[in-house]
Design goal:
alpha/beta; 16-stranded mixed β-sheet; LRR_FXL15/At3g58940/PEG3-like; elongated; 430 residues; 27% strand; two-stranded parallel ribbon
């Protein structure tokens, strides 16, 4: 009679290959290799693993990088079949990476991640640009220079670049020559005068960095945009390439979610606010404005303009940038807005972060409450040490505000500096 453990191994061995790949792919490397002792049939199954992930957990298993490097060489040497996903994080040796990339160029890689940790940026090897099956590419701390004649990644769907250096024309060509691209994230990459987005299937864009202008030349499917311009040096630039509202929102007919920071708003309003709002704002359901300083009345004015120019807005998040004192000009600008009854017809939910209780912030809340006839929920939070008044004081004052909505539930949250909730208070205003 066969024992239960042998029967179990046979059962696993008879599973379909794709199921075995999933099982092996979920195991840490040492555990995957240990499956070779299960039975004769399992001795070499791990060498067909289609997902190779050399992540932080992998490196923690070794005292020195040389040991980890030796294991990677051994794994690649005995590997059989395709490698659909390859991830290499926090590695330091460029020559070794070049050798591995040459090996991978013959393995039909579809998802590739390379994050290096060296003093100077790593030159992406020539072999990377031969990955014709590539669907997902993530690079960090690299110099990106395709060879002459590079025709793009025809199957690329997702591109994630951070601290990557290249010429602006290279990025423009990479985007335009990746016809299936749907997801694009660019963080702290090379500074550009103009970042041109020409991607017919793009649905998601996140850009955090420095540029004088973002041009959406062709983005008919774009649904979510996150933009944060870094640094204030560009704000003094008056050159013709500078962004403004009409240029930025030129062609995004499918836009549903917009996440923008106060510095970006400050930059976009350099050319003034258009009398007629861009049509790209017509379908926005979710809007986030982060790091918004109430010290600058132009930024406050542009934020109000943006909020009231989204007729289908349902979910609004505002994060105030601490200014530390009462700013009378902002109060004077917001006060007349409190009479704009019903301007935000569909707004249902408001999240306000870094709310200290200053008069100018309370005026902003007056404006929101008076403008949203179907508002249901307002959530407010800040760190306890930054509050200028208690939750009860803020609640008592807001009870007196004019409200367009008959029923609004307020949630006030105080959090200590270690992230623990010190106080939470909920009130329903009817």
């Amino acid at each position: 009679m066969r024992n239960a453990s042998t029967s179990g191994v046979d059962t696993i061995s008879n599973l379909p290959c794709n199921v075995l790949d999933v099982i092996l792919g979920c195991l840490p490397w040492k555990d995957a290799v240990k499956t070779s002792i299960l039975s004769k049939d399992w001795r070499y199954k791990w060498v067909t693993r289609q997902e190779l992930d050399f992540n932080d957990e992998f490196y923690k298993s070794f005292k020195q990088d040389e040991e980890a490097k030796r294991i990677i060489y051994q794994v690649l040497l005995v590997h059989k079949g395709p490698i659909l996903k390859f991830r290499l994080r926090n590695f330091t040796s460029c020559p070794d990476i070049d050798h591995w990339m040459h090996f991978l160029s013959k393995k039909n890689v579809q998802e590739f991640t390379l994050i290096v940790r060296i003093g100077n940026k790593y030159h992406s090897p020539h072999h990377l640009f031969t990955f014709q099956q590539l669907r997902y590419l993530e690079l960090q701390d690299c110099l990106f220079h395709p060879p002459l004649g590079f025709k793009g990644f025809e199957k690329l769907i997702k591109l994630d670049l951070m601290h990557v250096t290249f010429d602006s024309s290279i990025l423009t060509n990479l985007i335009s020559k990746s016809p299936l691209l749907e997801w694009l994230r660019l963080r702290s990459i090379t500074n550009f005068d103009i970042l041109e987005i020409n991607a017919a299937n793009l649905k998601f864009l996140e850009f955090i960095g420095k540029t004088k202008s973002i041009s959406f030349k062709n983005a008919p499917m774009l649904e979510k945009v996150t933009v944060g311009f870094l640094g204030r040096r560009l704000l003094t630039d008056t050159s013709p390439v500078c962004s403004n509202f009409p240029k930025f929102f030129h062609y995004m007919p499918s836009l549903l979610e917009l996440d923008i920071c106060g510095t970006t708003l400050e930059y976009l309003i350099k050319g003034g606010l258009p009398e007629n709002p861009p049509t790209a704002l017509n379908n926005i359901r979710t809007l986030t404005i982060s790091s918004m300083s109430l010290r600058d009345t132009e930024v406050v004015s542009s934020a109000v303009y943006l909020i009231t120019s989204c007729p289908k807005l349902q979910d609004l998040t505002i994060e105030f940038y601490p200014v530390g004192d009462i700013v009378e000009p902002a109060v004077q600008l917001l006060r007349p807005r409190s009479s704009s009854y019903g301007a935000m017809k569909l707004l249902q939910k408001v999240q306000v972060n870094m709310f200290t209780g200053l008069e100018m912030e309370m005026e902003f809340m007056k404006f929101i409450l008076a403008s949203a006839p179907v508002l249901e929920e307002v959530s407010i939070w800040n760190f306890t040490r930054f509050l200028f008044r208690s939750c009860k004081q803020m609640i008592d004052e807001m009870k007196e505000f004019r409200r367009a909505s008959a029923n609004v539930e307020f949630t006030f949250e105080e959090i200590d500096m270690e992230g623990r909730y010190e106080h939470e208070e909920v009130m329903e205003v009817a």
